Amino acid sequence: MARTVWDSTVGKKTVMAVSGLIMLLYLVAHMIGNLKIFFGAGEFNHYAHWLRTVGEPFMHYEWTLWLVRVVLVVAVTAHAVSAYQLSRRDIKARPSKYVHRKARASYATRTMRWGGVILALFIVWHLLDLTTGTVHSGGFETGKPYQNVVDTFSTWYGNVIYIVAMLAVGLHIRHGFWSAAQTLGAGGRTRDRALKTTANALALLLTAGFLAVPVGVMTGVVS
Length: 223
Hints:
Strand content: under 5%
């Protein structure tokens, strides 16, 4: 039964919608946490430590954080695999040649595909930069996320990578939220306008919220 659902186009779109909403919830929480940097190093570092102790004493140190990571990895993988397979299915369903040259996909579809690639590459860089410190520009200090963030956004390439990725996030959410709502049956003649407004507002809010951090470092508000 599960295999049949997964093999269907509707099933893959549903997986994309559900996994996308899981990632959206994470992004909202992540953005709120990031904004704590404006309250100073002590507040931000305390928040980073708190993330590792959530659920104690029932959950061991970092267990909740690792649980969230596992859920996110599953969601990202399911989302990417579904998107790729739907894309291949769409290509196979088209005629082999066109009489006239024309775009093979809509603007929104192309944006989602390239945005997904950009975000996948960014996630790898982001983890290597601020989680493991492998590609960190300064002297990476474990347990001092505030200083590590400031170091990253004190470099021009750190800002460029992050800003491009966050703009891609905004575009991805703007179209993705709308598509997920339609897939899950939330759309309708009376609700479409509200859903589009919500998608635009979420995209704008999250983009602005994430970009506030590098802008804060660049302007000296965070130092």
